[in-house]
Amino acid sequence: MASPVVPSEVSNALEVLTRVFGYDSFRGSQQEIIDHLIGGGDALVLMPTGGGKSLCYQIPALVRDGVGVVISPLIALMQDQVDALQAVGVRAGFLNSTQDSYQRREVETAFVEGKLDLLYLAPERLKLDATMRLLDRGEVSLFAIDEAHCVAQWGHDFRPDYLELSALHERWPDVPRIALTATATDATRQEIATRLQLVEARHFVSSFDRPNIQYRIASKKEPKRQLLELLRSEHAGDAGIVYCLSRASVEKTADFLVENGIPALPYHAGLDSRTRARNQSRFLREDGLIMVATIAFGMGIDKPDVRFVVHLDLPKSVEGYYQETGRAGRDGLPSTAWLAYGLQDVVQQRRMIDTSEGDDAYRRRLGIHLDAMLALCETVECRRGQLLAYFGQPVDAGQACGNCDTCLTPPESWDGTVAAQKLLSAVYRLRRERGQKFGAGQIVDILLGKTTDKVRQHGHDSLTVFGKGTELKDLEWRGVVRQLLAQQLLGVEGDYGTLVLTDASSQVLFESRQVRLRREPERPARAARTSKPSKSKATIDLTPEATPVFEELRSWRGNAARELGLPAYVIFHDATLRQIAVERPSSLTELGTISGVGESKLAKYGEQILEVLAGLSD
């Protein structure tokens, strides 16, 4: 049973927040979580990316006696996490396989002597007796298990080492524990609680809504060209992440962007570790870079000014999609989550499930994940509302968020029953009358009455369904195929993606089941692009007077970051620079009232910032 938090501890937490981190108030459920942990209670925290999860264990570690031990799978990012803490005056260190024996010994000595506030460990280190003996020699104030969804075997980022973390409670039953994740359904949350022996812990579930992110899903035509248009028209000069399904696609897309004058780097498991580390480091430290990556990239990325996340291929699950899009806009400024989605994505994902290793239960689970993702893509309702509902967050029926594509340009639905019957009939007749199976392209050609070489070769122009679908265009028929696959009224099999009927197909063909389909609205043509670059989303809502001040502050920050070998955001977030640009403080006292300017940063950078501002006034 956790002891009650005494008033002095509460005031200590607020004092640490203000003095160390430079914020004058807690957000959301932060204070409640922090008070609970300071009092010795265990907690399971679900909070969206950018919601301030780290403060929920960092501040209790600074208030309680001893060292906070953070379990994180992000070896490649531990240095950056420690740098960010040291920048605000927190004594932080890490132990992982990248260090030599001297560096490890130095950190271990600091831990034992109580000269650390926070110690970061990779989960696999806890399997070493030497690590457990080390923790016995020091005083541990709390255990924080970050990215806790990695413990869930049906989750999207399972790590077997996480299954061993229940040993923390068994060996140190009186040390409070906090497990944190940015995404989890109710089922995943219960699995986390069971596997980490946090069943008795208090659960804190914040809203999953990220209102600053605009969710958009577009029909895939020429995805690389669509991406280029998005970047040039809306995100010129912005940092962002582009996700692709394959390594080859990552390389081709990165090369394409570079060829078109947009700085981009590749990241995937096929690159050697040194190249991956170098590209990741550049992405974190430089402004305006784009990382083109497989899903191997992104967990724990703390870059706050990622203005967009693009998916050029369909994600496998809503959880993965939410986790990946959540890397945009951690600073709360307007950001974009854009997905290109087409027929081939559905065919490919269905085929991957059918041919995946594992038993039927595993394939069924993959199918459930994919069905939920397809439902999100095909919805005619508010996309954000459907996303929140997936995570069990109630939304008012019919309430529009006003910041997703289905709200901004509402799609229509139409009665596609006859169209579905025609298409399913074509698949049925090919199989029944000719013993043949074909992909979507041939089926559409038959319905449109195209006398192609392939149609003539197989005599498909003699089928009763030949030319019976001229009321729709080629792309419209492909949309019908895509949506029937999404609704499992049509199936796909084999390496060539041939279309087959499903058990539910007969309900449409023979039982008059109605089929509602989504019709995309005609998009207004974009105005011709001029040579004038688009305004970065980071400068949106800044006055004409404040914008050049903000840009000058960013330039100063970039130079300072390069000199210190730190990511720019470790010095100050864009949101802090924006506030400085607007308020134009003229003294250290005034600068100290800006959100994000703590005691340590004020001492390190205060005079330099005032010099920048004074120079602009001359």
UniProtKB/TrEMBL annotation:
Domain Helicase C-terminal residue range list: 223-374
Pfam families: DEAD, Helicase_C, HRDC, RecQ_Zn_bind, RQC
Reaction(s) the record says it catalyses: Couples ATP hydrolysis with the unwinding of duplex DNA by translocating in the 3'-5' direction
Residue ranges of every copy of the Helicase ATP-binding domain listed in the record: 34-202
Highest taxon of source: Bacteria
Cofactors, names only: Zn(2+); Mg(2+)
PROSITE patterns found in the cross-reference section: HELICASE_ATP_BIND_1, HELICASE_CTER, HRDC
Listed EC numbers: 5.6.2.4
Keywords: ATP-binding, DNA damage, DNA recombination, DNA repair, DNA-binding, Helicase, Hydrolase, Isomerase, Metal-binding, Nucleotide-binding, Zinc
InterPro entries reported for this sequence: DEAD/DEAH_box_helicase_dom, DNA_helicase_ATP-dep_RecQ, DNA_helicase_ATP-dep_RecQ_bac, Helicase_ATP-bd, Helicase_C-like, HRDC-like_sf, HRDC_dom, HRDC_dom_sf
HRDC domain mapped to chain residues: 543-618
Sample GO molecular function, one term: helicase activity
Annotated stretches, region: Disordered: 519-539
NCBIfam families from the UniProt entry: recQ, recQ_fam
Entry's family note: Belongs to the helicase family. RecQ subfamily.
Protein name (Swiss-Prot/TrEMBL): DNA helicase RecQ
